[in-house]
Amino acid sequence: MAKRNSKKLALAFFLAPALALIIFFFIIPTLLTIWISFTNLYNWKIDRVKEFVGLQNYKDLIYFIQHDPDVEKVVKTTLVFTSLTLLVNVLGGLALAIFAYLIDERVSLSFRLLWILPRMTPIAVFGLLWYYFFYGSELGTLNSVLLRLGVIDQPISWGSDPSVQPWASWLIIIFVNGLVGVSFGMVVFYSAFKSVPRELIVAAKVDGATTWQIIRHILVPMARWHLVFVTVWQLLSLLTTYPHLFVLVEWGVVDKNYGTTWSLYVFLTAFSKAVNYQALAAAAAVILVIIGAILGLIVLRVMKFEEMIQPPRGDV
Predict the structure, then answer these.
(1) 88: closest CA among 151, 155, 178?
(2) At a CB cut-off of 8 Å and minimum separation 6, what does 257 contact?
(3) How many other β-carbons are positioned within 10 Å of the β-carbon of residue 45?
(4) When you count CB atoms within 10 A of the terminal residue's CB, does the N or C end of the chain come out lower?
(5) What is the per-residue pLDDT across 37-48, written as a single tens digit (0 to 9) for each?
(6) Does domain 71-261 have CATH number 3.40.640.10?
């Protein structure tokens, strides 16, 4: 009995810091957000947090989605941005990790450091870089290159020209965020590949396996846990990310409506320069949390996470 109690105390001791962080930085803010979503809080008038309005904020959101073309564009942008950037981050990270694993270790180190630079670069600096790259005159790097190559006759205003919308804005935000997110998958997958016993690779080569066969039958299957983790993590991250998008939208690199995802819409609704409608933003945030939880569970189910956590049966 004493031994069992000591194990419980040890377990509680090691879990307490993580549980405290979850409670104070996730559960409590989530509960406060849910409560605010049922109130009439705006312009930070705290006294209005006591004005219970029921589901009115959620009804307003549904009405905006159905009748406000700007909000409808936000929904479309969220779907396109999340789905396509997820593919870039997961598959791109996997491809980069495979390439880094197959090349010489010294070259691989420089290659991985190069791809980590976008994640290490401050958001404002990174956004400024792409501001000048996509600048809508001949001074912009992209326009300058395309003009010199004769691809275009006059500069394109990538963030405001209606003839290239919405895909110009969508491709820009996918590209910029993909450069940041793809490095995460590369690091995780590369660590998975390095943990594969070298004997398996050597034995496969001795048996005549090609590089593609080694990738398909050894490296990728051995990284299935990491594949599930990166996919779910990136999905939830993309649903809630907005810093890079905020910089691109504020500086006019992309069209505001086609560069604003649901998470950025929540931020702008709560902290806009005009009316700060925190209650409506809270309702939108609650919907985002619910959608994220549902999509996360669906991805885990599709990727057969339950089968992966079953105890091994061993040889009979």
Answers:
(1) 178
(2) 70, 73, 74, 77, 166
(3) 12
(4) C
(5) 888 887 777 777
(6) no
